[in-house]
Amino acid sequence: MPRIDFYLLDSDGEEARLDTACRLVEKAWKQGLRSYLRADTTAEAQALDTRLWTFRKLSFVPHRLQQSGRDAPVLIGTTAVTDDTHPLLVNLGRALPEDFERYQRIVEIVDPDTERREASRVRYKIYRDRGYTPGTIKLK
């Protein structure tokens, strides 16, 4: 059963969401945990790919876009991962990942954007209705 946490941002905007996702997968990678960054669109996945190179000076997080077909400690994509080599899911998508039960840990990043916040409430309720107890972590 995965551990599920909703990270609530007080900063609005795409930069805060992407930077938070980058910091989380960087921390996970340094702890030896492989991650999958799930985006809504190919454009968002490409933005995450770029952001992982630039979000922090002198930072290096080995990553690849899922479509590249090559493995990396951090994968970025828009569809389900077909293997169990990435136990952490960082979900930036609006929908509930259909394969969410296969992950050991799920992080949902929520910013104050009205539509994204409402979509996160729906996901929270679905998790809860399926017997999970999602946690919430407020970030500043």
UniProtKB/TrEMBL annotation:
* Biological process according to GO: DNA replication; positive regulation of DNA-templated DNA replication initiation
Q: What is this protein called?
A: DNA polymerase III chi subunit
Give the source species: Plasticicumulans acidivorans
Q: Name one GO molecular function term.
A: DNA-directed DNA polymerase activity
**Entry-linked Pfam families:** DNA_pol3_chi
Do you know which InterPro entries this protein is assigned to?
Answer: DNA_pol3_chi, PolIII_chi_sf
